[in-house]
Amino acid sequence: MGDSIDNIVPHYGMSAGDGPHSYRGALDAVKPILEEEIAAKFDIWSGQEALCIADFGCSTGHNSFEALRIIIEAIKRKHESSDLKIPEFHVFFNDVVANDFNTLFSSLPTDRNYYVAAVPGDFHRRLLPPSSLHFAYSSWALMWLTEAPEAAEYGGDGYLEQFERDLDSFLKCRAVEMVDGGLMALLIPGVPALWDQEKEFTVASVVEPLRSCLVNMAEKGRLSKAKIESFKVPQYFPNHQQLRAILERSESFSIERMETLKHGRTSYSAEARAKSIRAALQTMIARHFGDEIIDELFHLYKEKLAASPIFRELNNDKTVVLLAILKRTNLQCETAARLLI
Ligand SMILES: C[S@@+](CC[C@H](N)C(=O)[O-])C[C@H]1O[C@@H](n2cnc3c(N)ncnc32)[C@H](O)[C@@H]1O
């Protein structure tokens, strides 16, 4: 299977045990949609002893466990309503090799009704055997790119093209691993098609103030200016139309439903925001600039956010969460079959 990206650039891993809680609210909005879609569209494989579910990019599990509970309960209800024997569940937790799987396993819910296994590795590669997966889930992970495009402006076309290539690889691998009729739920942080960058902010706005803190530190001689030039954050936050256009090109998945959900935050201080950005980017920043700058950098960052009239006002946050429910279908075969009717 060759070298995997996480062995070459293990920059994704969240800080140990310090997963993000800030977008937990989005799961409340996702719950009824997941339940409806599973009730209506999850195929029943009668006689199947075990069903497999995988969470791609699970981090330390904080949000994963609740999502899995919702998915498993909905699948069980579907079996009960069909008078079918409830299968056993096997959950695969995926994240990069450097992820803190120890924290995940030590915080597994004690009342869980599923078997667990870790599947470490880059989710843009194959991770599971063919036709073995019945439900795939991924939340707040696919915005990570395998690399930041050279000489491209952050968030510009070069980043969108990389996002498209990466998402395409993810879908191609899952297409092999999933059974026909299997469902996939993707939750990706994104931006509205139109928003005012002068007055509003989104999840895509976090890098600019960070860069400005780095420049301030370089001016004080704390780090080299040249290092800032080569510092790139390999993330892309799509809007609804961009995501839909990529998903529509897939020949293996049909789009069953797409929703743009509000972020769901009710309060979020500069300190909490800086903490969550630190959890997400610390590993990558330390790798590039060295561990010793981290405390000072995020102290400055918190102050910059607190002093900004844009970031101070919660209503200025226009971040959205894009939810896509896909079904594993062989669209080529379906089209051919329809032509024969
Ligand atoms: C922001 S956390 C999201 C965690 C969790 N899914 C949730 O909703 O809270 C993103 C996770 O995706 C993982 N990730 C990013 N790129 C990945 C890749 N190529 N393969 C596997 N995991 C990846 C990161 O290591 C990180 O733990």
What is this entry, summarized?
Helix content is about 40%, strand content about 20%. The protein has about 350 residues and is of the alpha/beta class.
What descriptors fit this protein?
341 residues; 12 helices; 7 strands; disordered N terminus; binds S-adenosylmethionine
- Pick out the low-confidence regions: 1-11, 15-22
Silhouette: globular
What integer value in Å does the Rg equal?
21 Å
Major beta sheet summary: 7 strands, mixed
End-to-end C-alpha gap: 41 Å
Side-by-side strand order of the widest sheet? 3-2-1-4-5-7-6
| Percentage of residues in helical conformation | 40-55%
Number of strands: 7
Strand content: 15-25%
Bound molecules: S-adenosylmethionine
In round numbers, the mean pLDDT is 89
Instruction: Write the element-wise H/E pattern from the N-terminal end onward.
Output: HHEHEHEEHEHHHEHHHEH
Structural class: alpha/beta
DSSP summary: helix tally: 12
Written description of the protein model:
The protein contains twelve helices and seven strands. It is of the alpha/beta class and 341 residues long. The protein has a seven-stranded mixed β-sheet, sandwiched between helices. α2 (25-41) runs parallel beside α3, α6 crosses α10 (294-307) and α9 runs antiparallel to α10 (294-307). The protein starts with a helix and ends with a helix. Residues 12-14, 19-20, 57-59, 62-64, 94-96, 99, 122-124, 139-141, 144, 280 line the site of S-adenosylmethionine.
